[in-house]
């Protein structure tokens, strides 16, 4: 398969209005294969597709228990990490919309974006928690419950859009984009994925090289 054919194949798969995001990005791959690797100052951490499936099912169940439903917005205030990938995939498993929040934002900027996006749930790193105002419903913030034996969650067909982001730091308007913008052509012999430095992009991004941001 040449590069042009690979591009056409990816476009067909990722442009399908009824595509199953979780299946395309995770569930169809061999469970033992490495899904991604996060490289940081303290070393690297890898996760297999099987581990990613289990963890994202567990998180999706926790989100559902918290009241998240199809079409709802779920925001993340997180650095690039294994947990971020799991959270994004869990959000998509429920048919919800992923809202990335840049960790460099201050409390006011975050509050405005949460209000504009209509996010019903925020998943934040511990060191970002102080930027979040108390929930208007009076709910307290807590750790997501863990399940020792997670079961599969329903996988909804892909709605027309999946990624919600700030269009501009000046106008602070928001734009909702198709989740399929996360697909980029990559040679089939190099299925590695990378994490871009921009918070507006989903974590899943095929690449030709092994560099990680």
UniProtKB/TrEMBL annotation:
Region (Disordered): 132-170
Coiled coil: none
Name of the protein this chain belongs to: AMP-binding enzyme family protein
Source organism: Mycobacterium kansasii
Domain AMP-dependent synthetase/ligase: 27-138
InterPro entries: AMP-dep_synth/lig_dom, ANL_N_sf, ATP-dep_AMP-bd_enzyme
One family name in Pfam for this protein: AMP-binding
